[in-house]
Amino acid sequence: MNARNEAMAVTVAVQAATRYRIVPVAARAFGRLNERNQVAFNESLGEGRFAARFYDGMQIRPLGTLGGASALATALNNFEQVTGASSFDAGGRVHAFRWCPAMGMTDLGVTRGGDESEGSDINNMGDVAGVVRFLDDGRPARAVLWRPGERPLDLGVNRGVTGQLFINDRGQVAGTSFDAAGRPQVFRWSRTERVVLLDDPAVFGSEARDINALGQLTGTHGNTPEGGLIPFLWTPGQEFLPLFDRAAFPFAMNDAAMVVGVLLDQIAFAWTREDGLTVLGFAGGGFSNAYDVNNHGVVVGQATNENALHAFLWTREGGMVDLNDRVIPRSPGVELSLAFEINDQGTILAQTTDGTLVLLLPFPG
Fold first, then answer.
1. Taking the model in full, what pTM does it have?
2. Which residues contact 155 (CB under 8 A, 6 or more apart)?
3. Which residues on adjacent β-strands are paired with residue 153?
4. Which of 15, 67, 248, 358 has its CA at 20 to 30 Å from residue 291's CA atom?
């Protein structure tokens, strides 16, 4: 590990930087942000039920349901399309959906006699990657691609899938399947290559965590049969690269293959080919977690500072700063405790200590 990087976050003086104004979105909610500063989010209704909604920058629109009592939004693109899962009957079973303001919620259905489905991710073409599940006969969950105007396409991941799927604008899908021994195994699917498996005899128990615009994947793998949670960068057909030899969990990656997440000793990290591992934290802080990075290399997350949780922003030049110190005007009693996502415009999706979901919009001047 590079000692200079270990100390960077607490030794570099923070330079003059962007200020933000707060736009409240919803109470007791969580969501996703796109490049147009729009948010798909979910409000808790209690008893495990959620109401999915869309903030278009001016107003909040309800997504509705497919006939049941609850819907959950999981992803959105830059063209006001949202995917997720909605209940469609009194028993609470769910189907994947695609929603847009003009058409409302469309049921994406199932394949091969499946009972349930859910959308995990959506790209800017409106392609939805998700899973179909079978409730009664023990068949494993199937990876499925729903393209507008086409029948659902089973991706041919024959041992089933687990966890979240990810899709980029090339239509490449990443996820986690199983090998012959039943261990988790990362795959990437494309229309030309079909299913490509991370099939390295030195890799045990791999899990996909993100895919970027170039089709590179990040995730974790076990470096021993007992597991090790070593983060990696994988470019199918070219290389498999463990990022470093410390146990860690990556959360996001940008198009330059900069990976951010948390070391398993509860300290945030950023990794690039140029700098290797950089450990992120406030001076004297005991916990930090990096949740997202944009294509300019700006990282956001959550960290402790003076025994309280604060949303942070980190740059290579300026180090880590408390986002509460960047809000104009500063509202008494409003504390930003967590930053979920940042887009390439610099807008941040965050949460206050009372659970309110907010946008932080860069302040002109």
1. 0.93
2. 142, 143, 144, 145, 173, 189, 194, 195
3. 145
4. 15
